Amino acid sequence: MIQRFGNAPGPAVFEALAHAAFARIPEPFAQHLDGITVHVEEFADEETLQALGIDDAWGLTGLYHGRPMDEESVWSSGEFRPRITLYRQPLLAEWCETDVTLEDLVTHVVVHEVGHHFGLSDDDMHALEDDAD
């Protein structure tokens, strides 16, 4: 018997899951998220991977682009609005390889990238996650 699965969720589903994750972020943090946009791409481009020192495009599921809040200034006008990019193919692969729901996976990546908006490093966020466990 051949088992068939439906089509993989498209970019619109990822955007909807990301917006749902934003809606669950509590105050006082939520009030500082206005203007952050969400974009979905299949993979990070080569330039982005090189800038981050990542060799394999499958290893990047999301990225925050923008100036962290603790570095904002009235003198930094004219910059692009902050945005979070979700990389669909690596997220789909992680979803298939783990027992984590797609909603929880996207939420985790969105919250992680929002942490960068607040000026937290990857090490800061990993320490917070370890403390929560």
Automatic annotation (TrEMBL):
It holds the Pfam family Zincin_1. Gene3D superfamilies: 3.30.2010.20. Signal peptide: none annotated. It comes from the Bacteria. This is Metallopeptidase family protein. It comes from Novosphingobium clariflavum.
